[in-house]
Amino acid sequence: MIHFVRILAVTLLAATPLRAEIDIQPVETDASFSAWLVEERSIPFVAIEVVFPGGAVLDTEDRLGATSLMTELLSEGAGDLDSQAFAAAVEATAGSVRFDAGRDSVSLRIRALTENRDEVLELARMALTDPRFDETALHRVRAQTIASLERDARNPNTIASQTFNELAFAGHPYARPTEGTPETVSALSRDDILTAHRTALTRDRVLVGAAGDISAEDLGQLLDDLLGDLPEATVDLPDHAAFTAPGGITVVEHPGPQSVVAFGHAGIRRDDPDFMAAFVMNEIFGGGRFGTRLMRELRETRGLTYGIGTSVATAQHGDSFQGRLSTDNSRVGEVVALLRSEWEWLAEGGITQADLERVQTYLTGAYPLRFDGNASIAGILASMQFQGFDIDYVNVRNDLVRALTLEDIHRVAGRMIDPEALHFVIVGQPQGLDDLGF
Predict the structure, then answer these.
(1) By residue range, what is the domain housing residue 33?
(2) What would the pLDDT profile of 366-423 be if each residue is shown by its tens digit?
């Protein structure tokens, strides 16, 4: 779940377009924190992205949702400022302090004008290291979270995602709901929130990206002040998860005229030499855009769905190759059969040279558009570190895409794609499954 400090939004883009090379400076602080910085002095604005690997996977079985709820509460008062006073203090700086919790990380996003940078950073430091976790805020945010979880429990997309994860990563934290359940969140106490705070936000698990009007020296001092009081980690990260769902179909009955179909099988690790080939293969096959193979075959040719997307879902502690769509209950059997057929097409080398060249043009042309401002750049720098990429990745990424051959795409498809291993989670009242031979 995401929490915003409601403030005046300030969006400042970098003054110059993406250069042929982006100059990323590695920064090492006196207190041994590391960061990547793109210095851009033309606009008096700085963006800082701080990522703490771990996230909801660190929750214990009986305290699911603790990290997510804790993160929601970080902006609900800090130091001697209660919730309203803290929000007002941030708003007065025309800056932004935003926390976000996910399955694999907790992140802090800071945006500040140069003239107010120190004030914004002090507020971020207070929220990060001295949150109040007042009982009144805890009761209010916990009630909001429970209401949201109860709504999600009736949402077929949420049901499909959670069921797929339970089957795909049985026995691993990935099988558990990131934000907990109404029952587990209801039981969370202030002590549980304090424990989650000590567990999730630690000084030895932190990655930083920064961009804008700041020097490496100033960034180093800023980070020491911001992060220096955090504790060391005391809880280990989980092992890498094996994909455990066998080929087949799981049906979850749910009322309504349509069914949600989530499907997939084992994927590929991000540090695998074939990862880039797998990524490009997926962009051709089912990357969620118009023009992909699956969008043409299922939407444009047959009208089976409004949209379909697949992804190389490479996470920190587990991998899958999966997708999702919605379709009329009466056509679910047709969709499942067609997806298995399309998986066979992909595994047997259906992608052509023209397909590859078209997506290479798209990917290399679209990539620079991501670097449209300091906030975007800071997020990319932190994400690169989180994903284990080298510091020069942004400058060679398009070369890596262009270097891929059709042989590379066919090799990774033959290695990774397995129609018989596909597992389908169908939430709805599907028809036409009896004759599929599963």
Answers:
(1) 2-227
(2) 999 999 899 999 999 999 999 999 999 999 999 999 999 999 999 999 999 999 999 9
Residue 388: which region, alpha, beta or left (left: phi > 0; alpha: psi -120 to 50)? Answer: left
Residues 276 and 353 in one domain: yes
Q: Which residues pair with 109 in a beta bridge?
A: 49, 98
Q: 194: part of which helix (H) or strand (E)?
A: helix 190-200
Q: Which of 69, 3, 26, 57 has its CA nearest to residue 233?
A: 57
pLDDT one-digit tens code per residue, 139-182: 999 999 999 999 999 999 999 999 999 999 999 999 999 999 99
pTM: 0.92
Nearest to 279 by CA among 327, 319, 224: 319
Do 252 and 223 lie in one domain? The reply is: no
Phi, psi of 198 (to 5 degrees): -65, -30
Report the number of distinct structural domains present in the chain: 2
Task: Give the confidence band of 286 by pLDDT, cuts at 50, 70, 90.
Answer: very high
Q: Are 351 and 286 in contact (CB under 8 A)?
A: no
Q: Are residues 272 and 199 in the same domain?
A: no
Per-residue pLDDT at 39: 96
- CATH code, 410: 3.30.830.10
Q: 192 and 158, same structural domain? A: yes
Residue with tokens 């270097």: 403
User: Does the structure show a pLDDT above 90 at 438?
Assistant: no
Phi–psi pair at 384, nearest 5 degrees:
-55, -45
**Phi, psi (rounded to 5 degrees) for 204:** -95, 5
Asked if 37 contacts 214 with a C-beta cutoff of 8 angstroms, the reply is yes
Neighbouring-strand partners of residue 328: 258
In a domain, 336, yes or no: yes
Residue 80: CB partners within 8 Å, gap ≥ 6? none
Beta 45-53 vs 423-428: how paired, if at all? unpaired
Final residue in a domain of this structure, among 183, 198, 227: 227
Q: Please give the share of the chain, as a percent, with pLDDT higher than 90.
A: 93
Residue (of 107, 241, 237) closest to 174 by Cα position: 241
**pLDDT for position 53:** 98
Considering the domain boundaries, does residue 52 fall inside one?
Answer: yes
Position 381 in a domain: no
Mean pLDDT in residue range 428-435: 94
Question: What percentage of the chain carries pLDDT values higher than 70?
Answer: 95
DSSP letter (8 states) at residue 62: G
pLDDT one-digit tens code per residue, 325-336: 999 999 999 999
* Identity of the amino acid at 25: Q
- Domain presence at residue 287: yes
